[in-house]
């Protein structure tokens, strides 16, 4: 009988046969799960390689699933437990953690570090270690040889400063950041090395956003919202360069050091203190927004993070030999390499007002913060410059200032005792400026200053006396005054039908001080001093003016205008001819028929101003005090009547007070012109001077647009000026406010003026053109 060879069964058939046998056996024994004995018998009877392959495949799939989805999370959980057991000053959470030895990569997700002061949250990231061979002979730089460069790439980051106890949180948002840390030789060989962090950030936005879960009610609303909150600064791209010297040891005095010349270049390099600073370069799309509201939030954040301890500052001791050298100051520099905008925002009657400034590339800001304290305290400084300045306001008459460059320098002097007098010195230099001035800007800037002032009641426990010393210098300037009759002004942007007078000159220096040395003074006094050289007065008549063409023809035919600058001997242009240069003009070009009317070699203007400040929280008390002083000068009968008014706080009875009886604000003006001034008398010039008198110092100090019936909404609707002249439409508004129970005008704002003006003219040469 021929023996049959065993047939080879496919793996699929074997698996099916195995399942059938198991099912049959389970039916016979009435058990679903086979026993170990049955499995061992079956594997012995049949070829077991395929079964083991099947089991290994299942286990491998399970292991791969574990490594993919659960291993990193379990490692993160283990690391979280270990780190929190070892570190007790905060909480550390690691959502997942994995690493690869071959690629040198460490990956992590959902990392939280939280303590009492700071919290750091990373959604996901990875670390890559790369080997770079470096050679160094410095034994102290072992770690720098091991890790010479650290690169950090951040996608969508945010830095937040604040918590629920603050009304606003300062947030710095950016889309992408590419940072590199390394070291380089120090600025002085006495130090060890210099830390450097270079980076590039894209779509940077610095914002003030409402703090989540803030408990108190917020009544102080920002003047403008953009997205989540108020944008302080934004830029499409920002480059940063942070540097800091690692201080070395102060060397001991040796004979070799004593022999070196104290003025040698090597000695100067050795004496350089360790450097510490941050350079910021802003590119395209840079915008800055600030104002009284933003400054109040800054003050709130500053007091929270740097609370005053009200202790006397200790004098910083000089570093002694064998001790680490001292860092003297922190330097912050910000450069703008593209056109940028600056908006100064404030609110009046729930309406946002703004001063909009366009600046050109090349503008910069430098801040120096001292890190040491001397016997006289310390003095931080701020300086910078703005190029190609073009400033406008939100008033209907928008034009404000044009300048080629505006430079500023601010010095603040702080005493060691916190409530000792402070002094702030500010110098501003403006080059080739054109300033458009109307009297309504006085109310505009007054509203800005009033909102910037604190609304809280004066507190003697936090009062610090200080003095502002300001000096403003104009080099080649034009100040243009609107001289239309009854102060009607064409506010359109093109082809304005306005009569203008322009005061132009080579230099103008303005010096004045603002003392705030007394707590809640009843009256304040300050003096302004203005000195100008090579001044000219120029007149412009629009095309619609009936005397324009006759006056222009008279100017062109006048013999005085036919004299060339090289042959003129008048004192007004004598200094100009000596240098061989023509006077600078921007708007007041003779080609567009600006007419020279008056030239003065030098002008000195002194203003002595005494005013009674108004404190919003104590206005009624001030009014009572003023009435009490009036009572002392009045008779007994009038005194009793004043007492009845004194104890009546209602608005209807408050209006019974006559503001003209209050002590007046005083203004004393002295104007002196140097001899040999030249004036050419034109008919329209005299009329323009009379209009200037009424538009700036008389009844017509509130302007009216040609296309509007009422005045600009940004101005105060109380009065046209502190002299009490009503503005257009004010009476109707006051009636509406009285009917709706609105807030009425406080009598202290209607205080009278006591004005005295002295004008000294010497040897004025007048001409009548024919």
TrEMBL record:
InterPro entries: BLTP1, BLTP1_N. This is Bridge-like lipid transfer protein family member 1 N-terminal domain-containing protein. GO terms for biological process: synaptic vesicle endocytosis. Residues 132-770 form the Bridge-like lipid transfer protein family member 1 N-terminal domain. One of its GO terms (cellular component) is presynapse. Residues 560-582 are annotated as: Disordered. It comes from the Eukaryota. It comes from Scyliorhinus torazame. Residues 560-577 have a biased composition (Polar residues). PANTHER family: BRIDGE-LIKE LIPID TRANSFER PROTEIN FAMILY MEMBER 1, TRANSMEMBRANE PROTEIN KIAA1109. Pfam families: BLTP1_N (PF20413). Keywords: Membrane, Transmembrane, Transmembrane helix.
């Amino acid at each position: 009988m021929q023996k049959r060879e065993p047939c080879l069964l496919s793996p699929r058939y074997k698996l099916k046969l195995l399942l059938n046998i198991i099912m049959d056996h389970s039916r016979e024994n009435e058990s679903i799960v086979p026993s170990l004995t049955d499995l061992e018998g079956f594997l012995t009877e049949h070829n077991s390689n395929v079964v083991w392959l099947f089991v290994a495949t299942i286990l491998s799939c399970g292991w791969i699933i574990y490594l993919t989805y659960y291993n990193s999370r379990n490692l993160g959980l283990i690391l979280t437990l270990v780190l929190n057991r070892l570190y007790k000053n905060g909480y550390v959470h690691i959502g997942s953690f994995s690493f690869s030895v071959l690629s040198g990569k460490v990956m992590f997700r959902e990392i939280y570090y939280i303590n009492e002061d700071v919290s750091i949250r990373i959604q996901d990231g990875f670390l890559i270690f790369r080997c770079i061979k470096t050679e160094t002979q410095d034994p102290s730089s072992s770690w720098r040889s091991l890790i010479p460069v650290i690169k950090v790439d951040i996608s969508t980051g945010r830095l937040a400063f604040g918590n629920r106890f603050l009304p606003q949180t300062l947030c710095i948002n950016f889309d992408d950041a590419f940072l590199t840390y390394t070291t380089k030789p120090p600025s002085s060989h006495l130090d060890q090395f210099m830390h450097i962090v270079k980076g590039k950030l894209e779509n940077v936005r610095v914002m003030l956003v409402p703090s989540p879960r803030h408990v108190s009610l917020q009544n102080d609303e920002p003047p403008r919202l953009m997205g989540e909150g108020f944008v302080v600064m934004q830029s499409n791209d920002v480059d940063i360069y942070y540097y800091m010297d690692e201080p070395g040891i102060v060397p001991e005095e040796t004979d070799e050091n004593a022999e070196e010349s104290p003025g040698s270049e090597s000695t100067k390099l050795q004496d350089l203190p360790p450097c510490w600073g941050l350079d910021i370069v802003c590119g395209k799309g840079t915008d800055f927004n600030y104002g009284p509201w933003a400054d109040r939030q800054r003050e709130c954040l500053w007091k929270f993070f740097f609370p005053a301890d009200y202790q006397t500052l200790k004098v910083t001791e000089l570093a002694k030999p064998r001790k680490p050298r001292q860092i003297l100051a922190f330097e912050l520099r910000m450069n703008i390499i593209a056109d940028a905008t600056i908006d100064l925002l404030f609110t009046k009657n729930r309406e946002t007002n703004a001063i909009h400034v366009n600046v050109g590339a090349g503008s910069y800001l430098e801040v120096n913060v001292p890190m040491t304290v001397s016997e006289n305290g310390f003095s931080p400084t701020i300086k910078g410059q703005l190029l190609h300045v073009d400033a406008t306001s939100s008033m209907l008459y928008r034009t404000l200032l044009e300048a080629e460059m505006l430079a500023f320098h601010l010095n603040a002097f702080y005493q060691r005792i916190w409530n000792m007098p402070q002094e702030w010195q500010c110098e501003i230099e403006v080059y080739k400026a054109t300033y458009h001035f109307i009297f309504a800007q006085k109310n505009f800037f007054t509203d800005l200053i009033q909102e910037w002032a604190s609304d809280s009641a004066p507190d003697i426990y936090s009062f610090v006396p200080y003095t502002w010393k300001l000096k403003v210098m104009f080099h080649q300037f034009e100040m243009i005054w609107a001289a239309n009759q009854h102060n009607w002004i064409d506010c359109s942007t093109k082809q304005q039908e306005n009569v203008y007078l322009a005061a132009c000159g080579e230099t103008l220096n303005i010096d004045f001080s603002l003392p705030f040395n007394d707590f809640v003074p009843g009256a304040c006094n300050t003096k302004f001093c203005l000195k100008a050289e090579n001044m000219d007065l120029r007149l412009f008549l629009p095309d619609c003016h009936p005397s324009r063409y006759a006056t222009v023809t008279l100017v062109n035919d006048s013999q005085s205008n036919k004299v060339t600058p090289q042959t003129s001997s008048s004192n007004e242009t004598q200094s100009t001819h000596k240098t061989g240069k023509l006077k600078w003009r921007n708007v007041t070009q003779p080609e567009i028929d600006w007419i020279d009317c008056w030239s003065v070699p030098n002008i000195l203007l002194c203003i002595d101003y005494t005013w009674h400040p108004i404190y919003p929280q104590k206005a009624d008390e001030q009014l009572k005090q003023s009435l009490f002083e009036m009572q002392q000068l009045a008779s007994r009968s009038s005194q009793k009547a004043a007492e009845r008014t004194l104890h009546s706080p209602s608005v209807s009875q408050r209006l019974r007070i006559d503001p003209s009886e209050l002590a007046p604000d005083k203004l004393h003006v002295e104007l002196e012109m140097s001899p040999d001034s030249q004036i050419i008398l034109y008919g329209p010039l005299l009329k323009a001077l009379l209009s200037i008198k009424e538009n700036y110092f008389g009844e017509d100090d509130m302007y009216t647009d040609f296309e509007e019936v009422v005045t600009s909404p940004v101005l105060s609707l109380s009065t046209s000026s502190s002299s009490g002249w009503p503005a257009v439409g004010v009476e109707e508004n006051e009636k509406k406010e009285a009917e709706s129970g609105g807030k009425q005008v406080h009598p202290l704002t209607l205080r009278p003026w006591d004005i005295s003006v002295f004008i000294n003219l010497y040897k004025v040469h007048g001409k009548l053109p024919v």
